[in-house]
Amino acid sequence: MHHTEPGILDPRIAVRRSTLADGRELIYFDDADTALPAERAIDARALDPRPATAEMRQDPLTGDWISVAAARQNRVFLPPADADPLAPQTETNPSEIPSLYDVAVFENRSPSFGPDLPGWAGPADAAAASAALADVRAVGLERRLPSHGRCEVVCFSPEHEGSFGTQTVSRARTVIEAWAHRTAALSALPGVQQVFPFENRGRDIGVTLPHPHGQIYAYPYVTPRTERLLAAIDAYGPGLQADLLARERNGERVLLAGEHWTAYVPFAARWPIEVHLVPHRHVPDLAATDEAERAELARVYLRLLRGLDRLYDTPTPYIAAWHQAPVHERRDEVRLTMQITSPRRGADRLKYLAGSEAAMGAWIGDVPPEAQAAALRDAIEGVEL
Fold first, then answer.
1. Which of the listed residues 216, 248, 278 is the one where a domain comes to its end?
2. Is residue 28 assigned to a domain?
3. What is the pLDDT of residues 108-167, one digit of tens each?
4. Which cofactor does it need (predicted)?
């Protein structure tokens, strides 16, 4: 099988496109060792029209943009297994996905960004992209812009419960291919400035669906976190992330080290549990990773997540965030980084963002990073795939 799909490197992983009843895009990614047939059912539901694209409002005190997406208020909250909206459809459960699947990606019904895009030519229109970035970075009073972009749901499994870490190595690789595919495809949409795949896991994080899944946001601006990184690179030099990785690879906070990836607890960790997983080669995003890097990532990432769950008797809540370079600028300076954070500071204790962190952004660490690294190393050593 020869792929013409963007971002896909493993020729054994089939990509099958479909459309949901209200016009949203649905894409199936079949495992390399799938037992599923090629045919997929048609979504025959009668659905209301999609909500209008939300509005962004700017906070002039910070320059940050806040998307006001009122349609999200009505999303499903902790449904039982027989009403899981991410499970394959049955006669009694008219869910979002018509067929049994391995991995499925579809447009969110109530997105924070999109479905509308600006009316310019696309990624080749460098002048429009540059002008759009300058516009969103300007600061003024009561500024409003459409929340252009795209929000997608990535289902890791048809099962009702689980997470990325509970998947097989084969399935993990399929999800990685899906992330790369969607990063490439979303980066090509007009108006998109940054693509962010992530997974929220656990009720303590605020998860409303126990189904194993993540999301991808395609933003119409460069996010505040990345803007701060760009400012740090300006202050230090373009080699900041390369020098940081070199220092960490020789330090005491390394958790896992492969041929292509290293996981470590950062020197100035904010959260009780914080891990960075970084490729040794400079790549700006998942779409730029090669075959060997993706193959190793599937195993390294599973070991890391399963190690987190061995710290305590119950699964660890976390946010897993793929920080990728902006679509249109600084791609030779910003390196792909997976950041895992958890508020869990003990078996039955959570870190809550109180006055200093929430109001001032001035963090106070509860656990020395070196001590947490030692505990995580011990937990990961017992993981077998």
1. 216
2. yes
3. 999 999 999 998 765 567 888 888 899 999 999 999 999 999 999 999 999 999 999 999
4. Zn(2+)
Distances, alpha carbon 368 to alpha carbons 222, 268, 341, in Å: 31, 9, 15
Q: Note if 328 is an active site residue.
A: no
What length does the chain have?
Answer: 385
Largest CA distance in the chain: 59
Backbone angle region of 312, left / alpha / beta, with phi > 0 → left and psi within -120 to 50 → alpha: beta
Residue from 213, 260, 282, 328 carrying the catalytic annotation: 213
CB 87 within 8 A of CB 75: no
Please tell me the chain's helix, strand, coil percentages from 3-state DSSP, rounded to the nearest 5: 30, 20, 50
d(CA 255, CA 310): 14
List the structure tokens of 231: 């400012």
Domain stops at, among 157, 188, 216: 216
How many whole angstroms from its chain centre is CA 26?
18
Cα 361 from Cα 353, distance rounded (Å) = 9
Q: Convert the pLDDT of each residue in 310-339 to its tens digit.
A: 999 999 999 999 999 999 999 999 999 999
Where residue 351 sits, what CATH number does that domain have? 3.30.428.10
Total domains, the chain: 2
Is 4 domain-assigned? Answer: no
